[in-house]
Amino acid sequence: MVLPEFTHYQTPPKRTVLYKTFSLIADGFLFVGGASLAISLIWALLSTINPNPFEETITTTTQPSSNDVVHCSNSFSGVDPPELTFYDDPNLSYSIDRPIRNWDQKRKQWLKHHPNVAGSTDTRVLIVTGSQPGVCRHPSGDHLQLRLFKNKVDYARIHGHEIFYNNALLHPKMTGFWAKYPLVKSAMLAHPEAEWVWWVDSDAVFTDMEFKLPLEKYDNYNLVVHGWSHAVYDEKSWTGLNAGVFLIRNCQWSMELMEAWTRMGPQSPDYQKWGKTQKSLLKDKLYPESDDQAALIYLLLKENERWGKKIYLESEYNLEGYWLALVDKLDNITRRYMEIEQKVGDLRRRHAEKVSEYYGMVREEYLKDVVRRPFVIHFTGCEPCTGDHNPTYTWEACWNGMQKALNFADNQVLRRFGFVHPDLLDSSLVSPLPFDFPLV
Ligand SMILES: *[C@@H]1O[C@H](CO)[C@@H](O)[C@H](O)[C@H]1NC(C)=O
Ligand SMILES: *[C@@H]1O[C@H](CO)[C@@H](O)[C@H](O)[C@H]1NC(C)=O
């Protein structure tokens, strides 16, 4: 039960009757039913054996009333059993500077001791995103960050994903686009129950709230990024893939990939050298400094044997899509979707937000011949927080593009709440939706 390397520095605390009963029942039981069913049964059983099994674990000055017991039973699934796990190893570091070994076994062992959270781990996705620690330099920056975050929270809630928003710099030297790697590593350690960590840049907007990640497709892969093989391997283009949105499996392979990836980061003594190497490999790379996107392409081109097989370049849908090519299409897409809804009564039916995925499935068969909503629109180069946008476009274009994308997405959410933004460029204005919209 306990990893040998942990045994010599700490003796496991005594296991209580509660824990023994819990693991005995849970081990055999959770394969049969869902966690909540198992827990309520365990609770029922424990209550008959011992009317107050929490006596040993909870110190309380007042006598628990029956209401307290009900309350306790709800938080029961949150009990952390005393068996030692990687969390108890003083040598295990969250820092990206210190590699982690045997993560798969460590994670597996933790899951074994937490059968109540271990169910259906294959599809557990933790969305991780974030922004800088300080105030945005552009006066609208913080407003935009808030709306961009709201959009991610909406998507996560609709699909039952958890989300972690971070605005602390976890490694002092890893700033900008490099800041996400220390964070992704920490997120993997903090959420061993998550099979995937889904990094989403703050300036990316979910614009199809119904779209579900096709996770089955990625069974044999550990990293999924938006990109095109020919652009990476034949053209050796810096824009052959985009590292602003990616899915990374919570496993040892990913820990090692991030070690190799961040070897080229600003915390490395070879940072300057890597910038030159990347620039000579990828002719269209914009900056002289080593960046994470170029670093990933470098690994695909130069260390393909080691990494290539487990990296999936997704181009069938917009895991992220470049905003300039997409925002102008949103009005026509809205019209197309409304035409479909005018014909299909099921799609007009009002419903609870909880069943959104079902209506997404219903809609699917009517989308075969139409331009779909882009899944994610990425405002690459707009820099909403600082306002230091790429000089090839204007701030106004960025601002309008973001309003459009955010309101387009919000309309899919607000509809379940009975309202709509009639004008995608006017965020303040909402109208109530009539019954059977958009038939009338
Ligand atoms: C922790 O690391 C130190 C130094 O590397 C080593 O001496 C010690 O045995 C390690 N402890 C464990 C529990 O692995
Ligand atoms: C929108 O659709 C109209 C009519 O089909 C077409 O003329 C127009 O070019 C489309 N606009 C864009 C931006 O695709």
SS elements, strand count:
11
Helix percentage range: 40-55%
CATH architecture of the largest domain: Alpha-Beta Complex
Q: Could you tell me the strand content as a percent range?
A: 5-15%
Count of alpha/pi helices: 18
CATH topology of the largest domain: Spore Coat Polysaccharide Biosynthesis Protein SpsA, Chain A
User: Pairing-aware structural class of the strands and helices?
Assistant: alpha/beta
The profile of the biggest β sheet is:
6 strands, mixed
Give the tally of structural domains.
Answer: 2
Ligand list: 2-acetamido-2-deoxy-beta-D-glucopyranose
Low-confidence stretches: 1-76
Query: What's the rounded overall pLDDT mean?
Result: 86
- Based on CA inertia axes, which overall geometry fits? globular
Strand order of the largest sheet: 2-1-3-6-5-7
The N- and C-terminal alpha carbons lie at a distance of: 64 Å
- Integer-rounded radius of gyration: 25 Å
SSE order, as H and E? HHHHHHEHEHEEEHEHHHHEEHHHHEHEE
CATH class group of the largest domain: Alpha Beta
How would you describe this structure in keywords?
440 residues, alpha/beta, Spore Coat Polysaccharide Biosynthesis Protein SpsA, Chain A, 2 domains, six-stranded mixed beta sheet, three-stranded mixed beta sheet, 18 helices, globular, disordered N terminus, binds 2-acetamido-2-deoxy-beta-D-glucopyranose, signal-anchor, membrane, Glycosyltransferase, golgi apparatus, transmembrane
